Amino acid sequence: MLAELTVPETRRLLEVALPLPSRSVELRLAWSRWRRTKRLQARRSHYRRRGAHYPLRLDDDKPP
């Protein structure tokens, strides 16, 4: 009996079985920026909806 597949293993199998055209670095960076922007909007909305009164840190790299 084999262990279940992990997410990276599944991704790798899909890459091999269903090869997609390669994407440019610019497209990957644009998608990453769009996704991070949406995540920040969702995070702000979540705290606003919950009525939190503490500020959001926009620079997650720095300790509080």
Characterize the structure shown.
- The protein is mainly alpha-helical and 64 residues long.
- The chain has a domain at 24-49.
- Helix content is 58%, strand content 0%.
- The longest helix is centred in the middle third of the chain and has 26 residues, at 25-50.
- The N and C termini lie far apart (48 Å).
- The mean pLDDT is 82.
The first-to-last residue Cα distance is 48 Å
**Content-based structural category:** mainly alpha
Oligomeric composition of the shown chains: single chain
Helix content: 55-70%
The amount of beta strand, in percent, is under 5%
Biggest sheet details: none
Q: Give the low-pLDDT segments.
A: none
Rough outline: flat
One letter per element, helices H and strands E, the order comes to: HH
Q: Calculate Rg over CA atoms.
A: 18 Å
Mean pLDDT equals: 82
Helical stretch tally: 2
Question: Count the strands?
Answer: 0
Compose a concise summary of this entry.
This protein is mainly α and 64 residues long. It is built from two helices and no strands.
What's the arrangement of secondary structure elements?
Layout: H1 7-17, H2 25-50
Descriptors:
64 residues, mainly alpha, 2 helices, 0% strand, flat
